């Protein structure tokens, strides 16, 4: 775990609200923003809390320092602490910095290979209005991170700085520019040879053989490549500083060639004869020169290594052509941006001229009208107002296109360019991203194989995003699947559909033999999903494969028993069926049940069907009886495979169907409840599922009916067990005495019955606010207040 402070380079640009907007921005990704937490603020919504923080910061007018502290807490690749652990770590780190009582907004982000928390902290105290800036915060952060790693069992990180300023700048150049730095090349290629030299002459010879030169500059030494690029000798190694080398070899000695070069050049110029006119006899130094090397027996070429600004990781993947494309696009960005802006401006001018011409025609027509002057004055005013509205609309569109031109043609670093190209489907750019750094071995909840049969994107799945390390993130419902080219990592919120999708992705990429790594619970769920989906896979783990086979056999036996019970019909059971030659004694109460129900209904008393039982919610439920008895009226003659057929048929004239026995789709087409013969269940907040379900179905049927008639209404559906995850708040609706919450996800609107307390809490939300659905059907709003 690593915690670091991100300083604001320009104090005027420090804006708490902009930082919170960045933390809350999904950036067209589903797998980015996790839990949002607001601490020590009166507001629960992060953007409202940002306004409150800005008001607090405005009270302190004395300080000229940055009033916002941006903290990042990052975890090792593959680590997935629970939300409770993340909350505790965030609170402990802020308290260690002295910000325990300060206002702050934190957001968990999942869009990179490392789970991390952004924390926006108000450095102004909420009651004293004084500013607090931690002293040597990097030491405090290192100490608290080491302590938290031990307490929560996290992987150990090195919290001591191991690189100097020059090394950090060289590493940044290599990561962002994508080319080797001189310092990095020296450390990788010839640092050992330089450090093993035993004298000044040998040291200069090693430098010369590698195309380098050691020079004095100021009070130290620099190493140059002969083309003007140089680094401090002490940056390569501490023992190469001028003081350390003079202790070993004595006073500094310049290279012999360099010391004699000035006198040699002067002597050579003095001895050279004058050059004649073009076409005359060549001077003596050019006579008998070999103008062609074809007749030369041998030639000696210095084969020493030389520093060149080559693309990084050339030993892993050849990125020469890719880097050339990158450089060419960067050089053409200015011209392309200018052309795009020029086209947008020309379009704006044409539209404005057309609007002016239309206005002139309208005014000319008004001038020709006969009538009172007040009417003409009103028409002129309307024409002028319409013209101004058209011009404002045209200018707004121009500004939008101009901003798009700037966004689409701005300079990108090498890593950002590779990420953008990989997102567009460039396989070579994706391979270059994955070759940039060594992958950490993932051992948690992964699915993979030995031989990759297919590479590239998986058909039928659209990537949610691609990280700078080349990890492709897919979203399947609430499950995030991360593909790093070697393994498929099943991330947080893994449901049955997500695990099945991960297995199918692994089968597509690695074949039928699959390797599963992770916890025992994860392996058990994988085995259950593979058996339930009847996937033709084989696991490398013998125990896991045996478990899958056991589950498959158990499922097959159960299905065979069901089929055998349905096909084996005895004469006694045939006699018990309606229309048989003789009704059994057990079937008589069933036959009389509807008659009694009809008489009770006509008498105004509550009806009971058969030997009904009273459920927990007070609703009468028919007695199902043993297998083989006559089914209840609402199940007779049911078309199991044509559930949308709006027809009810009575088998006997003596049977009466009550309104509750008739499916709702007879009158309204909508989603049908599947709990008609089971006990009354409890919904969100203890709502009776029967009343809440009817209310939800009624509202869904009304909205779907309008949508079928051509109204611009999104698809509405009822909440199900697979809707766990993030959603957008879309409103509250009241249907009778029931309250329904509308939650938007993608293009669908999820209708969920809620209790009164949840409804009061959700009424404080604005349309579009982020909420989350749990597997139990409860709604959680993002953000909290302490």
TrEMBL record:
Domain of life of the organism encoding this protein: Bacteria
Every MobA/VirD2-like nuclease domain range: 22-154
Compositionally biased residues, Low complexity: 270-280, 600-610
Any Pfam family the entry gives: TraI_middle
Large polyvalent protein-associated domain mapped to chain residues: 464-550
Stretches assigned to the TraI-like middle domain: 167-254
Sequence ranges of Basic and acidic residues compositional bias: 438-454, 559-588
Name of the protein this chain belongs to: Protein TraI
Domain TraI-like C-terminal: 695-780
Region (Disordered): 270-294, 438-462, 552-640, 661-682
């Amino acid at each position: 775990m690593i915690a670091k402070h991100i300083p604001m380079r320009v104090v005027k640009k420090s804006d708490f609200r902009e930082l919170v907007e960045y933390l809350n921005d999904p950036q067209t990704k589903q797998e980015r923003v996790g839990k949002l937490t607001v601490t020590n603020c009166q507001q629960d919504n992060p953007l409202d809390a940002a306004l409150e923080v800005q008001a607090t910061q405005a009270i302190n007018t004395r300080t000229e320092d940055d009033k916002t502290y941006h903290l990042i807490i990052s975890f090792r690749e593959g680590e997935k602490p629970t939300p409770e652990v993340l909350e505790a770590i965030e609170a402990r780190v802020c308290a260690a910095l002295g910000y325990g009582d300060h206002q702050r907004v934190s957001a968990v982000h999942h869009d990179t290979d490392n789970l991390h928390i952004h924390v926006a902290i108000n450095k102004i105290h909420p009651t004293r209005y004084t500013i607090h800036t931690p002293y040597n915060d990097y030491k405090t952060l290192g100490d608290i991170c080491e302590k938290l790693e031990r307490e929560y069992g996290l992987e150990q990180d090195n919290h001591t700085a191991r690189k100097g300023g020059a090394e950090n700048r060289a590493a940044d150049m290599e990561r962002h520019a994508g080319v080797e730095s001189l310092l990095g090349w020296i450390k990788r290629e010839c640092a050992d040879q330089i450090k093993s030299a035993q004298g000044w002459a040998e040291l200069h010879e090693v430098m010369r053989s590698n195309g380098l030169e050691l020079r004095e500059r100021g009070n130290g030494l620099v190493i140059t490549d002969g083309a003007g690029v140089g680094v401090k000798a002490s940056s390569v190694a501490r023992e190469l500083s001028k003081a350390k080398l003079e202790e070993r070899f004595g006073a500094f000695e310049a290279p012999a060639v360099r010391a004699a070069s000035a006198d040699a050049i002067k002597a050579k110029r003095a001895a050279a004869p004058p050059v004649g006119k073009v076409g005359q006899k060549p001077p003596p130094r050019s006579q008998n020169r070999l103008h062609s090397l074809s007749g030369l027996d041998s030639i000696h070429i210095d084969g020493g290594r030389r520093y060149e600004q080559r693309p990084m990781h050339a030993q892993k993947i050849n990125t020469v052509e890719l880097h050339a494309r990158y450089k060419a696009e960067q050089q053409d960005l200015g011209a392309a941006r200018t052309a795009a802006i020029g086209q947008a401006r020309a379009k704006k001018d044409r539209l404005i001229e057309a609007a002016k011409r239309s206005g002139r025609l309208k005014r000319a027509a008004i001038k020709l009208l006969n009538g009172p002057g007040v009417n003409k004055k009103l028409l002129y005013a309307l024409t002028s107002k319409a013209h101004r509205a058209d011009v404002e609309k045209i200018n707004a569109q121009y500004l939008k296109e101009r901003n798009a031109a700037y966004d689409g043609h701005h300079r990108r670093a090498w890593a950002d360019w590779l990420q953008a190209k990989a997102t567009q489907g460039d396989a070579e750019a994706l391979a270059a991203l994955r070759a940039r750094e060594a992958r950490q071995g993932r051992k948690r909840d992964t699915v993979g194989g030995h031989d990759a049969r297919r590479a590239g994107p998986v058909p039928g799945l659209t990537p949610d995003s691609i990280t700078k390390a080349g990890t492709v993130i897919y979203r399947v419902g609430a499950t995030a699947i991360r593909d790093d080219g070697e393994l498929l990592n099943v991330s947080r919120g893994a449901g049955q559909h997500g695990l099945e999708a991960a297995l199918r992705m692994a089968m597509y990429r690695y074949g039928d033999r699959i390797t599963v790594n992770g916890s025992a619970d994860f392996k058990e769920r994988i085995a259950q999903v593979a058996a339930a989906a009847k996937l033709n896979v084989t696991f490398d783990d013998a125990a896991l494969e045996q478990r899958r086979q056991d589950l498959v056999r158990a499922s097959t036996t159960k299905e065979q028993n069901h089929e055998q019970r349905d096909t084996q019909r005895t004469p006694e059971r045939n006699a018990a069926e309606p229309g048989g030659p003789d009704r059994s004694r057990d079937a008589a109460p069933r036959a009389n049940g509807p008659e009694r129900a009809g008489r009770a209904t006509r008498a105004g008393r509550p009806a009971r069907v058969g030997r009904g039982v009273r459920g927990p919610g007070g609703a009468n439920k028919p007695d199902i009886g043993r297998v083989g008895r006559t089914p209840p009226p609402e199940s007779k003659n049911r078309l199991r495979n044509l559930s949308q057929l709006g027809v009810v048929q009575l088998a006997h004239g003596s049977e009466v169907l009550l309104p509750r026995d008739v499916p709702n789709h007879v009158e309204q087409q909508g989603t049908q409840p599947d709990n008609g013969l089971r006990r009354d269940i409890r919904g969100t907040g203890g709502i009776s599922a029967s009343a809440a379900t009817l209310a939800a179905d009624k509202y869904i049927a009304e909205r779907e009916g309008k949508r079928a008639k051509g109204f611009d209404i999104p698809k509405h559906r009822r909440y199900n067990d697979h809707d766990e995850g993030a959603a957008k708040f879309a409103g509250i609706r009241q249907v009778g005495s029931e309250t329904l919450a509308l939650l938007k996800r993608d293009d669908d609107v999820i209708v969920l019955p809620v209790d009164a307390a949840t409804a009061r809490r959700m009424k404080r939300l604005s349309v579009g606010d982020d909420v989350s659905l749990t597997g139990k059907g409860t709604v959680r709003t993002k953000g909290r207040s302490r």
